């Protein structure tokens, strides 16, 4: 099921994608990346992700490639090296890494829509320092002559007993509150491209599990020239399979 793609064919430089698993949120992630593929293919796709807290380190992979069922995606080692030279990172390798689905779930879509594109996986915690790292990534890519797109991977409110978060009880009223209030505050900040606001809001109201990735993608997209954002789709896992515990998802694109 295809969603309309906003912006001009060559003006899309980034987006926000969910990572709950393809059954629940795959069509949102697929549509965002499909929209980014409207124009000429990028040299590099920088993917910000990871489930991190404000005290977490930065993470990066700087060598080798990432496997997908559609073939391997090479890592942009030159761009990675530029970041590692300037900021502290925990450097992961094929033999030493923490399992995390936030970036992994996007890789087959990236390989399908951008078959010749390199990727740079970056994990940044939800704090303002992360935003400077993201801006540097975009500036460095531009200085290297790279055409670059950026993705931030996050889900929204995790509501229910499964997540220990039930400020509005259970049932339809809780679903309504998540959609119309808690998730909406986060989505509005993303659409206004307020990276710092995204980080602050998530720490107050638990409405983005990877706010560092979202803020980073916003700031990197701004550095690449983005001035506008538009929602591609929003729904929750409750809309896919009703349950007392559920999660919100949004897809957004950033364009010049």
Tags for this model:
256 residues; alpha/beta; two-stranded antiparallel ribbon; 39% helix; 21% strand; globular
What is the compact description of this entry?
39% of the residues lie in helices and 21% in strands. The protein has 256 residues and is an alpha/beta fold.
Q: Measure the end-to-end span.
A: 26 Å
Biggest beta sheet summary: 9 strands, mixed
Q: What's the total number of strands?
A: 11
State the shape: globular
Low-confidence stretches: none
Q: What Rg is obtained from the alpha carbons, in whole angstroms?
A: 17 Å
Task: Reconstruct the topology from this structure.
Layout (H helix, E strand, L loop, with lengths): L11 E6 L4 H15 L7 E6 L9 E3 L3 E2 L6 E2 L2 H10 L3 E3 L8 H4 L2 H7 L4 E6 L5 H15 L4 E6 L4 E2 L12 H20 L3 H11 L5 H13 L4 E9 H4 L5 E10 L1
Parallel strand pairs: 1-8, 2-7, 2-8, 3-6
Antiparallel strand pairs: 1-11, 3-7, 4-5, 9-11, 10-11
3D structure, described in words:
The chain is an alpha/beta fold. The protein has helices spanning 22-36, 77-86, 101-104, 107-113, 129-143, 172-191, 195-205, 211-223, 237-240, and strands at 12-17, 44-49, 59-61, 65-66, 73-74, 90-92, 118-123, 148-153, 158-159, 228-236, 246-255. The strands form two sheets. Strands 1, 2, 3, 6, 7, 8, 9, 10 and 11 form a nine-stranded mixed sheet that branches. A two-stranded antiparallel sheet has the order 4-5. β4 and β5 form a beta hairpin.
């Amino acid at each position: 099921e295809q969603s309309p793609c906003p912006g001009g064919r060559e003006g899309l430089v980034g987006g926000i994608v969910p990572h709950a698993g393809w059954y629940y949120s795959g069509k949102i992630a697929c549509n965002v990346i499909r929209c980014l593929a409207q124009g000429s293919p990028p040299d590099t796709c920088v993917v910000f992700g990871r489930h991190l807290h404000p005290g977490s380190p930065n993470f990066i992979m700087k060598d080798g490639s990432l496997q997908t069922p559609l073939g391997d995606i090479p890592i942009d080692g030159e761009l990675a090296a530029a970041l590692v030279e300037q900021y502290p990172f925990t450097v992961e390798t094929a033999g030493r890494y923490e399992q995390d689905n936030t970036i992994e779930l996007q890789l087959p879509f990236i390989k399908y829509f951008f078959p010749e594109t390199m990727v740079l996986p970056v994990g940044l915690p939800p704090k303002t320092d992360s935003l400077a790292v993201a801006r540097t990534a975009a500036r460095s890519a531009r200085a290297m002559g790279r055409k670059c797109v950026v993705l931030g991977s996050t889900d929204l409110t995790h509501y229910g007993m499964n997540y220990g978060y039930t400020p509005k009880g259970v049932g339809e009223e809780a679903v309504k509150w998540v959609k119309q209030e808690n998730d909406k505050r986060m989505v509005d900040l993303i659409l206004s491209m307020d990276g710092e606001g995204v980080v602050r809001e998530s720490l107050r109201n638990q409405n983005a599990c990877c706010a560092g990735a979202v803020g980073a993608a916003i700031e990197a997209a701004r550095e690449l020239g983005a001035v506008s954002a538009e929602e591609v789709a929003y729904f929750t896992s409750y809309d896919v399979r009703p349950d007392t515990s559920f999660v919100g998802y949004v897809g957004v694109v950033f364009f010049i």
